[in-house]
Amino acid sequence: MTRTFLFVLGSARPDGNTETLARKAAEQLPADVEQRWLNLADHPLPDFEDLRHDSTRPRARPRPSGDNEALLLDATLDATDIVIVSPLYWYSLSATTKRYLDYWDAWLEVPEVDFKATMKGRTLWGVTALAHSEEEVAEPLIGTLNHVAAFFPLHFGGVLLGNGSRPGNVLDDTEALARAKTFFAQEPPLARYPYES
Questions:
Q1: Lowest mean pLDDT: which of 15-24, 53-62, 76-85, 110-119?
Q2: At 36, phi and psi to the nearest 5?
Q3: Is the confidence at residue 98, as pLDDT, over 80?
Q4: Residue-level pLDDT at 57
Q5: Is residue 58's pLDDT more than 80?
Q6: pTM for the whole thing?
Q7: Domains of the chain with bracketed CATH
Q8: At what angle do helices 68-78 and 95-107 cross, to 10 degrees?
Q9: Mean pLDDT score of the chain
Q10: How far apart are CA 90 and CA 97, in angstroms?
Q11: CB under 8 Å, gap of 24 or more: what pairs does 64-69 form?
């Protein structure tokens, strides 16, 4: 299977620091690695409805088709590596990014997709820019992505952190730019929940 990176952009503004940092890291990927970039602002999802325990509907969900949900599902299934590119908003993921991950729960109920088994063993990565100089404030975001990865389980490459508030600030973070050069070169382990350590 050709290695394919799906970059899921979850910023509330275009060309922000998080996307800039992700593109710096992506420049280091080998030429034979496919890249697909999808901006969630261009492919909005409706608010997620959890209907798992609604007795008036069948347990199984039909596979979505012809809409943004279908596009994002197909892109996710086609990827060997999913990169969540979300700024740190109130110490966690952006709303559009969280909504995209909420839909992973819905896709678990589509029998023909067999989402959990299909995704197992792929790799989840994160990239975020934060305004704080203390990287510890990103721990809730990192924990969320780790736990999502542990559920399947997916390999988890961690989160590439950069500092920047105003547009372009991340280019002044020389440590983040140095980390970006080797971020995708690692072979990440399968994710584990903290209590499994």
A1: 53-62
A2: -130, 130
A3: yes
A4: 67
A5: no
A6: 0.94
A7: 4-196 (3.40.50.360)
A8: 80
A9: 94
A10: 13
A11: 64/110, 68/43, 68/44, 69/45, 69/103
Which amino acid makes up residue 16? G
Whose structure tokens read 């700024």?
87
Q: Give me 158's structure tokens.
A: 């961690």
Residues composing the chain: 197
C-alpha torsion sign, points 185, 186, 191, 195: negative
SS (H, E, C) the chain: CCCEEEEEECCCCCCCHHHHHHHHHHCCCCCCCEEEEEECCCCCCCCCCCCCCCCCCCCCCCCCCCCHHHHHHHHHHHCCEEEEECCCECCECCHHHHHHHHHHHHHCCCCCCCHHHHHCCCEEEEEEEECCCCHHHHHHHHHHHHHHHHHCCCEEEEEEEEECCCCCHHHHCHHHHHHHCCHHHCCCCECCCHHHC
Nearest alpha-carbon partner for 114 in 56, 61, 52, 68: 61
